[in-house]
Amino acid sequence: MFLRCLLALLALTSLSFSTNPGVQVRLTKKGLEYGRQLGMASIQQKLNTITIPDISGKVKLRPVGKVQYSLSNMRVRSVGLPQSELSLVPGTGFRLGIRNAFLSMNGNWRVKFHRILKIHGSFDLNVKGLTITTSIALKSDKTGRPDVSTVSCAATVGSASIKFHGGGSWLYNLFRKFIDKALRKALEKKLCPLVADAVSDLNPTLKTLNVLAKVDKFAEIEYSMVSSPTVSTSSLDLGLKGEFYNIGKHQEPPFLPPKFALPPKVNEMLYIGVSPFTVNSAAFVYNKAGVLSMNITDDMIPQSSPIRLDTNTFGALIPQIAERFPGLKMKLLVNAPKDPVISFEPNNASVQATAAMTAYAIQPNATLTPLFVLNLDISVSARVFVSGMKIAGAITLNKMDLTLGTSYVGEFQVGSLDDILKIVLKLVVIPQLNTHLAKGYPLPTLGKMKLVNTQLQVLQDYMLIGTDIQFTR
């Protein structure tokens, strides 16, 4: 997993063309440090797979004359990476530096001299002062998905000491320096291609990131980038589209995302800012899909409630209903002629909604007779929280104002229905909406990432999620 977790955090840099982001993500130095720790274990695993091709040749030595030699079956026994650093490079991506690494290898040696004399044995190789410096760039591929590549790499081996074992090891000791140099060069040639392969191995994983995430059967949310990442020496900021769409139909809402900036916080590994644009685009999508329309019947009212959805209850407040339609069940149709509007201010997320409620009497033959139409202006407060890798919520009623749209039963005082309809909202409408809101919608999912010690704050014109992260295999 060479920097897999870190690069997954960077992986949302595929580009699209828009104005302002609906969601912003900031990766801090603390997040980079976590990525470095995970990456070193993966780098070490890669280094353990190094194989050096067999080395052979001829050399003329005094006093034995011409000698044919070979080193074969060279394998790594152990690797140590005591010092490493991962840093951001403004305008590019990041740089990984490994210093004072060491490894040990063993293999077999064989020599032939005087044409007929052959001897062989084994050897141990210890390499110290191994240094690797690599720069990695992240870009968008043709599909708008992230793609990583190695921009530059340099590797050096400080020293290599070899010890020969076997009956003729004295012969090898005559040209030890030559062998040491050949082994160092062979090892150096292997290191950068190994790092490049490790980086390339990340791309299949990066292609699985949820740039377009399904929410439910009605909606999906897009997390593609709206601009190039902003890289500073202290953090990496990403602007994501953060827009809901109806599944299979990407229609833009009649409003644009406003500008907002994340605060200069660095205590957590990751910060995610969500603007009202994102949640308002969800309201636009769900209203278009008809999710915000609801039929309410008496069987949806808890049996313990003294309020029933029938002409007897409503007739007590509007006598002409009881006179014209005695003893009938009723049905309420609620819909939203306008999309709800969600706004954020310090410690408060609120929703302003306009609804139309049509009341019907259900005739014995199941036909519906309209009674009246009410206009409702509703204000609710929202409690927003993070659940797993999702943002979820719950709402409570603050205020409701009624006006009469149409009456089919003559004039009546609308205010007389205020208490009954508040009870209907609290017992039926709001619980159903909360059931949906509790399911939440997905945050950008980066591999097998988990959020740890997550905090959510509602600030002026955006929500801020501050969190540490963990990656699991």
Plain-language structure description:
The protein is of the alpha+beta class and 473 residues long. Helix content is 22%, strand content 46%. The protein contains 9 helices and 24 strands. The strands form 4 sheets. Strands 2, 3, 4, 5, 6, 7, 8 and 9 form an 8-stranded antiparallel beta sheet that branches. Strands 16, 17, 18, 19, 20, 21 and 22 form a 7-stranded antiparallel beta sheet that branches. A hairpin with a 3-residue loop joins strand 3 and strand 4 (65-80). The N and C termini lie close together (9 Å).
Q: Fraction of residues in helices?
A: 10-25%
Please give the number of β-strands: 24
The poorly predicted ranges are 12-18
Radius of gyration: 35 Å
Which overall shape is indicated by the principal axes computed on the Cα atoms? Answer: rod-shaped
Structural class: alpha+beta
Largest sheet: 8 strands, antiparallel
Distance between the termini: 9 Å
Return the average pLDDT rounded to an integer.
Answer: 87
Number of helices: 9
Percent in strands: over 45%
Question: Summarize this, please?
Answer:
The protein has helices at 4-10, 29-47, 169-173, 176-200, 203-206, 276-288, 311-315, 319-324, 418-439, and strands at residues 23-28, 51-52, 55-61, 65-80, 83-89, 93-113, 117-140, 146-156, 159-165, 212-214, 219-222, 230-231, 235-240, 243-246, 270-274, 294-297, 330-335, 341-345, 348-362, 368-387, 390-407, 441-442, 449-459, 462-471.
